[in-house]
Amino acid sequence: MQIFTFPSPEAEQRIDTIMRRGIGFSEQTYRQVEQIVNDVRDNGDDAVLSYINRFDSPRLKITELKVTPEEIAAARKQVDRGVMRSLDKAVAQIERFHKKQRVNSWIDTDRDGTVLGQLVNPVERVGLYVPGGKGGQTPLVSTVLMGAVPARIAGVDNICMATPADNDGGVNPYLLAAADKVGIDTIYKFGSAWAVAAMAHGTATVAKVDVIVGPGNQYVTLAKKIVAGTVGIDMIAGPSEVLVIADANARPDFVAADLLSQAEHDPLAAAVLITDSPALAQAVARETAIQLKTLSRQHIARESLECFGAILCVADLPAALALSNRLAPEHLELLVKDPFAYIGQIRNAGAVFLGAYTPEPVGDYLAGPNHTLPTAGTARFSSALSVDTFVKKTSVVHYSRTAFDKDATDIIRLADIEGLDAHANSVRVRGEKDGGRGQ
Known about the structure:
The chain has helices at residues 9-20, 27-55, 69-78, 81-99, 133-136, 141-154, 173-181, 192-201, 218-227, 252-263, 278-292, 298-308, 317-327, 360-365, 401-417, 421-431, and strands at 3-5, 106-108, 114-122, 125-129, 158-162, 186-188, 211-213, 232-233, 241-246, 270-275, 309-313, 331-335, 351-354, 391-399. By secondary structure, the protein is α/β, with parallel strands linked by helices.
């Protein structure tokens, strides 16, 4: 990994390269995905099956699109008890965290003659996208849990899951076992942009949903961007990233391992260390090179580090925290002597991991908070997937005649300023001599 002194022109150039890798799409890719979305919208199952047979499973029939109970039962038999226990533990801890996010409807009668409030209701149907991962060889079971658990806690009635079938029309048994564990109602054997389009617009086989969540490649992400507004989505997410702030007390092997845990995700992933210790910077650079050689995905991690990795040496920890807030990382690790002393200085981060024994993967799988997080600097204005993703809030307003008369003049005055005569008249007519007969 390259070491830079910050601030410097070289460091700024590297930071700019990392930040710009984000969520951009070529015009050609946008047109391709838009065409797919429109095709599925207009031609339904025929279009969906055409894309499935062309790109994923050449012999799959539309009648085989839904995973059957028999397939789920067979999958459960293939998953050993240790894995099932781990899934149970993860579900319990994710549930415990997300239950604290529930918000109730409320009514306020503090102002005389008024009833004001908010109704909080879940959406009816949710679509969860789960990437296939090397043709199903790397099943993202954690994505199943992180999407479905908060939706269930929100009160969603129906959750479907879309994940690509393999060449033979099957789905990885670990994904099916995880989906069964969290009560997914329907599992569809399709992926990519056509899966997103089918869930957004509905087909004869695929029921239209209200919200789509879950990660994916650029085609999935772009399809979500295109259908946003037709349905709700969680976020437009880019490649994964970790930023580690470490002082001289940090162990170089811990830091290196945590940087590589993100670099192995994707050649576009970013792994950044900010430290006030030049000695640690050198030690981490050496340790990263050693550990890299042991990884099964070392070619991916190497490309990530070469293109979007960096070690930034700063004057002190306040400077490190200021730079972190500027970068607004998806994952922020504080491997410093007293990490809790700095919580108040963190303004922009998807999730914060405090201390030497809280590496980012504990959040990916088991800690409880959601691992679907804002990337590419969007933590400046965006938040993790949560129970709130699956609910909508409706305002409630009631005025008595007395309360209406008290506010009428001000409402009319403000409507007149905006030149909206009918708005003003809607209030004015109720204040006339013959008006106001209702409640």
